[in-house]
Amino acid sequence: MTFPAQAGLSRAWVSSKGSDTPSCGALASPCRQIKYVLDNALVSPGGEIDILDPAGFAPFTISQEISVINDGVGTASVQQTTAGQSAITINTNGPAKITLKGLSIDGRGAGANGVLVSSSFPMGVAPTYAGEINILDCVIKNFADNGIAVTPVATGSGMFQPNLDLTVANTLVLRNGANGMLIFPPNGPLVVVATTLIRNSVFKNNAADGLKTDGFGGHTTMIEQSTLYRNGANGLNLRAGVSTTVKHSTIMANAYLSAGKDIYAGAPTYLFDNNTIGTLQVDVQTVTDGTNNVLTRTGATLTPLSRQ
């Protein structure tokens, strides 16, 4: 006789020694795969999947509010070796709070994206909260496309677009075939990634840009205590509608594969306090300098900074 998997847990445990059975999930009887827990909805929305010990995990899709946590037990690896497929896909089709912590996410040169955010959110009759996505203490590497790709879609015909908050902290994003991180809502102003916070993170050796943002209006990016180094094109590529603040960060030695700049500022950019920047290119928009910033290289396209 086959029994249905249990559901409604506030927390489920996974382990290298676990087994994917209908009764798994408790601390004494953990499941083996994160994917099994999610696909069988063992955890209620808002719950948590906790990793007990070092293990490798299959790619998975998140379609509800949840946290996946490795709180320092050793390497928790998620590998995607199938071309065109992403390692972790977030597709909640509505507001949700998602946290990924302590994961080593590896494309092995084949997988498309490390973390793909493809959720859809309804337009509203008032400003709409689309939730938050937190990527903490992770390593994301070796993907054919982007380490992190945030491409949400709006649906419906309301007047107000949904607002999504994104945080990347204490995370290393490297050796990806396109961008370290791409923020690009495919239907333009209908979706706003309202706020992106990048803190204490490193984006390096990605073939295109370290971070590319195109928010189409209303998007604020804050970069603090981070390094964008030796990316193939631009270290930081800011397109229309993106207002960016950079603090206590280093952005230099980029554009080693193709033409580019350490910062391409096609949107308002504020360089506040104690940054080291290589080559800066300003296109139409204004760059405002704060204090103690060091511009290490200049070029023909450099526009002088305007002092606050």
What does this structure look like?
- By secondary structure, the protein is mostly beta strands.
- The chain has one domain.
- The chain is 2% helix and 43% strand.
- The protein contains one helix and 33 strands.
- The strands form four sheets. The protein has a twelve-stranded parallel β-sheet with strand order 1-2-5-8-12-16-19-22-25-28-31-33.
- Helix 1 links the parallel strand 1 and strand 2.
- The chain is globular and about 60 Å long.
- The termini are far apart.
Could you provide a short overview of the structure?
The protein has 308 residues and is mostly beta strands.
Radius of gyration: 20 Å
Question: What's the multimeric state?
Answer: single chain
Q: What is the helix fraction of residues, given as a range?
A: under 10%
Mean pLDDT: 86
Biggest sheet character: 12 strands, parallel
Strand order of the largest sheet: 1-2-5-8-12-16-19-22-25-28-31-33
Uncertain runs: 298-308
The separation of the N and C termini measures 72 Å
Number of self-contained structural domains: 1
List descriptors.
ten-stranded parallel beta sheet; 308 residues; twelve-stranded parallel beta sheet; globular; mainly beta; disordered C terminus
Structural topology:
Blueprint: E1 9-14, H1 34-39, E2 43-51, E3 55-57, E4 60-62, E5 66-69, E6 76-79, E7 88-90, E8 96-101, E9 104-106, E10 115-117, E11 120-122, E12 128-136, E13 139-141, E14 148-150, E15 153-155, E16 162-169, E17 172-174, E18 181-183, E19 192-199, E20 202-204, E21 211-213, E22 219-224, E23 227-229, E24 236-238, E25 242-247, E26 250-252, E27 263-265, E28 269-272, E29 276-277, E30 280-282, E31 287-289, E32 294-295, E33 306-307
Parallel strand pairs: 1-2, 2-5, 3-6, 4-7, 5-8, 6-9, 7-10, 8-12, 9-13, 10-14, 11-15, 12-16, 13-17, 14-18, 16-19, 17-20, 18-21, 19-22, 20-23, 21-24, 22-25, 23-26, 24-27, 25-28, 26-29, 27-30, 28-31, 29-32, 31-33
